[in-house]
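Design request, C-alpha cells follow.
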C-alpha cells in the first residue's frame, strides 16, 4: 500500500468531526468526492503502475469509459458504441503519453539485459531470457586496443619495459569514437514505426537515449 493509493470514500468521512459522521453526511461527502476519485483513478493509477487496458482493435466496439492502448498512448472512450480510431479527439481522450507505468520506467538503465527488456516492452515485441534471443536484441563490442600515452606526469603515462609496454606503440593513431553497441530491430517492426524511414531511427533513439549512459555510442540495425 502506498500513500498515493487514496480512497476518498474512506478519507472523506474520516475528516469529519466524530459527531458529524452520521449516515446522511457520510453519504453526502461520498457523493461529492466520487468524481474526484474517478479522476484520481483515471490519471494517477495508470501513470504510476501502467494501465490494464488492451491494444485497440478496429474490430471491437468500445463502451463509454473503456480504456485502450494505441501506439504508445492510453485513451479513454468518451461515448458508447465507439468504433473510431483513438486519435479522434471527439470520441477518445488521451490520458497517458506512455503505456508503461512510471514505477517501471524509473528502473530502466543501459545494462544490456535491462535495456533489452525495456526496448521490447516499448515496441511491443517479444523479450526472451538469456541465452535465448529477444526480437529486439543488443550486440556489444570490446574496446579497441588502447594506444601508448606519454602524459605530463608519470601517473598519466603508459608503462614501458625492456621488451614490452603496457600499450601498443604504432606508427599512426586514430582517436575517432568507436561503437560500443548495436541495437538490432526486426525490419518489419522498424518500418512500421513511421512512413518516413528517417523517422524510424529517431523514434527508437528518443526512447533509448533516456537510459543510455553518457559517452556510449550505439547504432541501430535492422535484420
Amino acid at each position: 500500500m502506498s500513500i498515493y493509493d487514496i480512497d476518498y470514500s474512506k478519507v472523506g468521512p474520516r475528516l469529519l468531526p466524530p459527531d458529524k459522521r452520521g449516515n446522511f453526511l457520510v453519504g453526502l461527502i461520498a457523493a461529492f468526492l466520487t468524481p474526484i476519485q474517478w479522476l484520481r483513478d483515471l490519471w494517477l493509477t495508470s501513470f504510476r503502475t501502467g494501465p490494464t487496458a488492451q491494444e485497440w482493435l478496429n474490430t471491437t466496439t468500445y463502451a463509454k469509459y473503456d480504456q485502450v492502448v494505441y501506439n504508445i498512448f492510453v485513451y479513454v472512450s468518451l461515448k458508447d458504441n465507439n468504433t473510431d480510431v483513438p486519435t479522434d479527439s471527439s470520441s477518445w481522450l488521451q490520458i497517458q503519453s506512455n503505456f508503461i507505468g512510471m514505477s517501471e520506467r524509473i528502473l530502466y538503465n543501459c545494462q544490456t539485459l535491462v535495456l533489452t527488456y525495456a526496448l521490447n516492452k516499448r515496441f511491443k515485441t517479444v523479450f526472451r531470457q538469456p541465452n535465448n534471443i529477444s526480437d529486439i536484441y543488443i550486440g556489444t563490442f570490446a574496446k579497441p586496443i588502447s594506444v601508448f600515452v606519454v602524459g605530463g606526469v608519470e601517473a598519466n603515462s603508459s608503462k614501458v619495459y625492456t621488451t614490452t609496454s603496457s600499450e601498443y606503440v604504432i606508427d599512426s593513431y586514430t582517436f575517432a569514437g568507436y561503437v560500443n553497441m548495436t541495437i538490432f530491430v526486426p525490419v518489419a517492426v522498424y518500418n512500421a514505426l513511421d512512413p518516413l524511414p528517417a523517422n524510424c531511427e529517431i523514434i527508437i533513439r528518443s526512447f533509448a537515449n533516456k537510459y543510455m549512459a553518457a559517452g556510449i555510442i550505439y547504432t541501430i540495425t535492422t535484420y
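Comment from the thread starter after seeing the answer: thanks! The chain has two domains: 8-96, 105-222.
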